[in-house]
Amino acid sequence: MMRGVIVLQIGFLLFSTLTYSQSPKSDTSFLTTSITNAKEIYTNAIRGQERVLNGSEYLEYQPTGKEHPYYLSNEWSEGNIEYDGQVFTNISFRYNTHTDEIIIEQESPYRMIQLVKSKVLHFTLNGHRFKSLYSKSLPLGYYDCLIEGDVCLYAKRVKELKETTSSGKVVREFTEKTRFLVKKNDIYYFITGKKALIKILSDHSQELTSFIRSERLRFKKSKIEASLVKAVDFYLKLK
């Protein structure tokens, strides 16, 4: 759609330019400059689209049932991606949390493209903002930004694949798992619960402990994410 709009705009520009050139003693330099500018606009726009498609071909996962490896939904969703130094908005893509890869569609010829992970700075999908992180103690990957400030809280969303055999057929099942990590003083710490969090944020351990107790925060399974968000947010307000 974007390319079509650009072509129409360039066509209009060229038409206007040619009309102008039919007047007596038209300014040839103006015509040349206008055509050059029009070509440059088109070239830059196409170059941007090619850059976002710069990746390896992706082989679609073949399910044995209703299972799928994608984040939240098997459907294509629109989001924004900052890729290779350029921001692309309203891009249709899927996030494979089993392989930790972003998948987009190429229209002509049709194929699925797996983006180069090292070129992705961040992306937004289904209301979540993911950031590409890497350090000596942290493998390169996409992490859900829950809180960012002097102290950051991230979630690593992963789908683990389990294969079993039933009646001679292979049955696959994905299990969703989330690991949480805190970044403080440029160091990443994986945390599993309340004790680990308080240890990392020890400069306000007493206030944090009292807050957790008064708010009755729980750090097991389904409640841990909401509790961590509240606790870290409280800690940042003490700074």
| SSE pattern | HHEEEEEEEEEEEHHH
- Distance between the first and last residues' Cα: 47 Å
Helix content: 25-40%
Structure annotation, total helices: 5
**In total, how many domains does the architecture comprise?**
2
Major beta sheet, strand line-up: 1-5-4-3-2-6-7-8-9-10-11
- Sheet/helix structural class: alpha+beta
How many E-type strands? 11
Give the biggest beta sheet: 11 strands, antiparallel
What integer value in Å does the Rg equal? 25 Å
Averaged pLDDT: 84
What is the 3D form?
A: globular
Q: Note the beta-strand portion.
A: 35-45%
Poorly predicted sequence stretches spanning 5 or more consecutive residues? 1-22, 42-48
Could you describe the 3D structure shown?
The chain contains 5 helices and 11 strands; from the N terminus they run H-H-E-E-E-E-E-E-E-E-E-E-E-H-H-H. It has 239 residues and is α+β, with helices and mostly antiparallel strands. It folds into 2 domains: 51 residues; 137 residues, no CATH class. The protein has an 11-stranded antiparallel beta sheet with strand order 1-5-4-3-2-6-7-8-9-10-11.
Key phrases:
239 residues, alpha+beta, eleven-stranded antiparallel β-sheet, 39% strand, globular, disordered N terminus
Question: What secondary-structure arrangement, pairings included, does this model have?
Answer:
Blueprint (H helix, E strand, L loop, with lengths): L1 H20 L6 H25 L2 E3 L19 E7 L2 E11 L4 E6 L4 E5 L4 E6 L2 E8 L2 E10 L3 E16 L2 E16 L2 E5 L2 H7 L4 H10 L9 H15 L1
Antiparallel strand pairs: 1-5, 2-3, 2-6, 3-4, 4-5, 6-7, 7-8, 8-9, 9-10, 10-11
Helix pairs in contact: 1-2, 4-5
